[in-house]
């Protein structure tokens, strides 16, 4: 991958509709076929509800309400079927706007690169006009089974700037109906006896031009047991079969949903690439979190840089779905090194440095990830490693840990010119001790592009290049 | 400052008529609308009906249960927006003793009525209930309030003021609403009493959805603090049509499939309306009153349907016993 494409979705607006739908029915028979029939009928009822005039989509944090099946009727009156989708945005009250008075001037300079997301809620209008019949109570007494759950509907539609509300909402409605079909399929497929699993939709951002797609999985079934489904999806979207795209960890994180763990994700995305003659940019693929000194209430200032670099690498493997293991703590890293026989028991809890070789050992021990070690006897030699590093980011795409005689760093990419041999390194510095302030981190170069003189020209370096498992 | 009550002056006429009758103490209900600010509206007073068998000998002994049952039934019948605000008593007994009686009555009435509510109290609900003591001889009128949510509350003086045409230009908000509910019955017991319980639980869940639903008035979502009648002629009765949008709770049950002994469904539509006072009412109040009327209308309807079922079952049971009797005789 030459340029990270997670930014390619910036244009246009994403419409995302969510909302539970009640799935309720009585199953009078335990015969599998009859049960399936009743469940299918119930899904059909839900589909007709979604297509009915009662179906309403409300724009979150705004007074905008749209009836997609009533000629895309909307309130307030200013909104008509021919209004552009983007114009809905101005009706949405955001937190930023509320506090805008104070710091708008400062924040405007760095506009979030994220795409606009309009969140909608799926609702049903219960009031009606026209002929109505009085309530009737009816009772069936029969020993049977009662199915009751809510389906967590979650559909996305990407619009271009010229899309009107009418067009976009027609697509949304198609997406909702389609999702109900998918949910029905998954529910019936995974029905065992009288046990049912709730279908769960997940969104995945595929490389362009495919973009955002949605898959429905049965809740509670681990990724490993869904390999067949995932393989089918890979085939359907013509994706390579050595890279996971449809594990739950790959699920798309919407730009308006902050990560709850507090770590920054991919801070390098706000940087501008260096311009080299005939140069190309080769970057880490996928998502990592930025781990550095003093995080997690751990004072590791002065000794923990390689641990932090390793944590950044582990976070990459976790967020790409290769492992479900959480990012290891300093202690867990030390224990792993004791377990492989690399260190004595007293190493655990100490403040001793580790290097590239230890990073390799821990990745192998905790994540079963193998790594290549690149040895550079003098920092000046690093300038000639452009081809190898570029190749690494193309085929593996993992962050590289670089250590050796001096401080440890993480390399996230290179800008390299094949013709002139010129090179720049994208560095993530684990020695940062401050708060998770993206502006500060990128302004002060804690995450930034460095020229070859960044390296100590006379010191030796070991690079640990993690090799990603070839699996889906 | 205590609460103030703006009272329709027909109430004054009603009360003085009762004073003239002079047949021992008379109790009754005060009906009106609570406004979140300091002033409420009383539009009607209605006396507790006399028990047919009760003789005048019952005299001073108040039948608390009779009063509360009356309140419960009246409360069910009231149009949306109106509720039982408190109780009155017409007696020449010493004011102190009367206050104790009124206190007991108002707590009992409020407890019974609120036990039938399927909605959750709102933050801006007023918990003060009104009591009125009128001395038939002196016509001295004493108005006091009690905070019925505080069992230790003491009487607070309140202002009682008659005025004409208090409710002559109240607005009306109405809607037709569709109900579609399916509830499982327990595996082992499917008797009608159990059905009552299951339906109540089902109704509670549904009522929560209504309460947290979005309410549109004349097709628009009004900010809570908007004045409902803003920009319209004062003293003219306005009517509004409401729309309700709901969404189910996102509940994740671990047991998707349960055993059941059957199911019961309620399907159909009801008409709901709520009256709103004319003194700069807020959209929030109209929404709250309408939603409460929707919930209580459906709950009452379901209760009626259940009672009907219960009666027809009793008759059937009677028939079954009869035919058994016939069979035995024929032998």
Automatic annotation (TrEMBL), chain A:
Signal peptide: none annotated. Residues 280-464 form the UFSP1/2/DUB catalytic domain. Keywords: Hydrolase, Protease, Thiol protease, Ubl conjugation pathway. InterPro entries: UFSP1/2_DUB_cat (IPR012462), UFSP2-like_2nd (IPR049387). GO terms for molecular function: deUFMylase activity. One of its GO terms (biological process) is proteolysis. Residues 41-259 form the UFSP2 second domain. Pfam families: Peptidase_C78, UfSP2_N. GO terms for cellular component: endoplasmic reticulum; nucleus. It comes from the Eukaryota. Belongs to the peptidase C78 family. This is Ufm1-specific protease 2. It comes from Dicentrarchus labrax. The lineage of its organism: Eukaryota, Metazoa, Chordata, Craniata, Vertebrata.
UniProtKB/TrEMBL annotation, chain B:
Its main location: membrane. The keyword Transmembrane helix applies. It is found in: Membrane. Keywords: Membrane, Transmembrane, Transmembrane helix. GO terms for cellular component: endomembrane system; membrane. The keyword Membrane applies. One of its GO terms (biological process) is intracellular protein localization. It comes from the Eukaryota. InterPro entries: ODR-4-like. May play a role in the trafficking of a subset of G-protein coupled receptors. Belongs to the ODR-4 family. This is Protein odr-4 homolog. It comes from Dicentrarchus labrax (European seabass). The lineage of its organism: Eukaryota, Metazoa, Chordata, Craniata, Vertebrata.
